[in-house]
Amino acid sequence: MKKKMSMLLITMLTISTILAGCGNKEKTTIDANPAVKSTTPVTVSLGFWGTAQDLGIYQQAVKDISAVHPNIKLEIKQYPSSEQFWNTLPGEIAAGVAPDLIKLTNEGAFEYIHKGLFEPLDELIKPAGVDLSLYNGVDIWKVDGKQYALPISTMPAMFLINDDMWKKAGLGAYPKTWDEVQVAAKKLTTKDVHGIVINIDAFHITNYVKSYGGDWGYGKTINSPENVKAVQKILDMYKDGSAVTPKSIGYGWDGEVFANNKAVMTTGGYWYKGYLKEANPDLHYVALPVPEGTVHNSTMHSDGYVVLKDGKNKVEALQTASFLTSEKVLTEFVKVGNNPSLKSLSSKFFEVNPEFDAVKPAIEYSTDFQYPIETKKFIDELIKQLEGTILGGSNKTAQEILDKVQEQFK
Amino acid sequence: MSVSRNNSKSIQPYPYKKQSWFSSFADSDNKVGWLFILPFLILWAWWFFYPFVQSFIRSFQDMNFAAMDEAKFIGLNNFIQILQDPEFFQAVLHSLQIVLIAVPTQTLLGLLMALLVNQKIKGKGIFRTIFFIPYITSQIAVTTVFMMLFKQGTFLTNFFGIFGFGDVTWFADTSYALIFVAILFIFQQAGFSMIVYLAALQEVPKDLYEAAGIDGASKWDKFRYITVPFVKPISFFVISVSTILGFQIYDQIAAISRYGALGSPAGATSTVVTYFYQHGIRYMNIGYGSAAVLLFFFIILIITFLQKKLLDDKE
Fold first, then answer.
1. B148 neighbourhood in chain A, CB within 8 Å
2. CATH topology of domain B80-311
3. Staple partner for A332: which of A37, A57, A84, A177, CB 3.0–4.6 Å?
């Protein structure tokens, strides 16, 4: 009996080996000269993460697209969160079930562009009838001279303050520098509330880094003196008790802490508007430029629609992206705080979102994230080293933390 | 030597004729048996063997999700890199720690719960259900609830403070996060162990306990000399399955690490599975990840083999 089982298992192993060796040899051929305008009905799938308001806008777009592109049926797929999106996408691409079109930010896109996951749009633009001159922020999505996304929005990071708590503390003018923030945070910290919540997250850390005149230099300047100064400021605020991480008080991210009135200040982005509207509609906050460390600088956040390299119906996908960046759709996104890339709507943004008026000057000086190509590895290493000190009590200095990260990206 | 089935008083040797593989299959009893297990074998080959063999091949390749057709053979490079990576050994250590803490605890707890619900007590059906519910509840749901219960300043953290634990959010502190994961595993897995032990306990002949009682045996004696020998064979199964599941723990860690790096905080909850996920899926280095999984497979195989040697009672 044992011999027969062994023979059967060996047979199956052999068959499996042959199958494995023969598998996956086919490559999807890319049509380099797609048809100008097809009338063949096609389905374009869009993947995104966002708020309930974003979902509502896309659901409406699903109904409206047929008026402009009768041959296109739009299907939408919402991912629960950004990290779910970034973690799931490679597997979906490998399995051939990834959406044709995805909405993503410039924060993590660089790695995917360099690994060849996205289709350059240059040859698709003419057949799809897209006019790039209508958009701002086009160059943010240009890598090595090739266009990789149709920009949706561009907006600098901002600094949010719970206005009711600020005024109640009688602190007067809002802080303009991190030193002023630290002083105010100490005064605002009580038993139940922290002056500032600092999420140990690459987006937030990068804003501190930029405000001290530093940047990651695509992996070349991770442990620069400016970056060290910025990280040291963060560690100092944790040390003096005025700063808290969301995790240490049982929250997922800083937006939750802020919405629950457990912290008075936080760095953030335009997407906080939609979230805070749902989470705490009674919360009164002010949005300011990211405070100065030594310079005026912060991250420029851009959303864009990219076409995946293995996607089907690439021209139709870009046409869908063009529809989704039309005045009609982007006007809805303006209402939830997106600064539209469409030039014709630029002035409308600050009319509809007067609370972001103070952030306007930051549009001029904010810059890209400049993460290393191995972006996810960089983010994980940076978070791990910072958590080791802030949550693990490892007593590493900012220099040691950033040196350790730099080691991984020589 | 086989014995014939005739009922004569003298035992005659059965004329044994060696059958070929084909005629064994063609034998009607065997054929029916093979047909019954064939669907399982096909599915097992498709869902286990084929991916396993693919993973084995990939482990010797430099392969990226973005360009799977451009994979190139690099021999043992992936394995060498892994064995030089201190994070891999940290992950293995954490996996071992979870198993060493959680498996004996949930096994013992399962046995105790089974002994309790095997008694003639009122409401034992309700107890059985209550103890089993965590096992069938979503791991993410349980983790989310536990994350609320183990936040700084809550009843549970204050309770554990009596025993010297700090008033911290357990899953956010590098000293407590791994214990938190072990607690989650114990809470969910003990119900499964209980059900398995309960089935074993119900096979124990009641008259053995009665006879032992007449002979003056105490409750401890009955447990030690009657119950334990009967549940010992099933213990290998419980411990093996729990060990394998303990090594595979992932969902709870992913829930804790949400909005942060997997293995958060600061890698305190990194395990071999999270190591594979990070390298194979998140960093898209599928060859490297496959090599890590293969190493892990052999580790579990060795541990399971050792467990069988120590625990399996053939008598």
1. 250
2. MetI-like fold (1.10.3720)
3. A57
Residue A381, token pair as written in the block: 């290493």
Taking the C-alpha atoms of residue B130 and residue B288, their distance in angstroms, rounded to an integer, is 43
In angstroms, how far is CA B93 from the centroid of its own chain? 17
**Given a cut of 90, is residue A210 above it in pLDDT?**
yes
The tokens for B71 are 């994979």
* pLDDT of residue B11 exceeding 90: no
Q: Which CATH class is domain A42-154+302-357?
A: alpha beta
Q: Report the alpha-carbon distance of residue A325 to residue A141 in Å, rounded.
A: 15
User: Considering only the top CATH level, what class is A158-298+374-407?
Assistant: alpha beta
Contacts of B142-146 with C-beta under 8 Å, sequence gap 24+, read B142/B184, B142/B187, B142/B188, B142/B252, B143/B184, B143/B251, B143/B252, B143/B255, B143/B256, B144/B255, B146/B180, B146/B183, B146/B184, B146/B187
How far apart are alpha carbons B238 and B242 in whole angstroms? Answer: 6
> Tell me: the pLDDT tens digits for B134-145?
999 999 999 999
Max CA pair span of chain B: 80
Q: Residue B272 carries which side chain, given as an amino acid letter? A: V
A113: closest CA of chain B, how far (Å): 10
Nearest CA of chain A to the CA of B69: how many Å? 7
Instruction: Judge contact between B110 and B190, C-beta under 8 A.
Output: yes
Facing residue for A20 by CB, picked from B57, B147, B151:
B57
The verdict on a CB contact (< 8 Å) between B68 and A24 is yes
Q: Which amino acid is at B102?
A: A
Q: Is the dihedral of CA A114, A115, A118, A119 positive or negative?
A: positive
Q: Which residue has the tokens 């959010």?
A: B169
CA gap A13, B249 in Å, rounded:
28
Share of chain A above pLDDT 90, in %: 72
Could A252 and B169 be called an inter-chain contact, meaning their C-beta atoms sit closer than 8 Å? Answer: no
Sorted by where each begins, the domain ranges of chain A are 42-154+302-357, 158-298+374-407
> pTM score, two decimals?
0.84
**Using one digit for the tens of pLDDT, what is the confidence trace for B86-113?**
999 999 999 999 999 999 999 999 999 9
- Tally helices (H) and strands (E) across chain B: 15, 2
Say yes or no for a CB contact (<8 Å) between B284 and A250.
no
Spatial contact of B270 and B96, defined as CB atoms under 8 Å apart: no
Q: What residue segments make up the domains of chain B, in order of their start?
A: 80-311
Burial readout B57-95 (b: 16 or more C-beta within 10 A, e: otherwise): bbbbbbbbbbebeebeebeeebbeebeeeeebebbbebb
User: Which residues of chain B make contact with A109, given a CB cutoff of 8 A?
Assistant: none
On whether the CB atoms of residues B157 and B147 are closer than 8 A, the answer is no
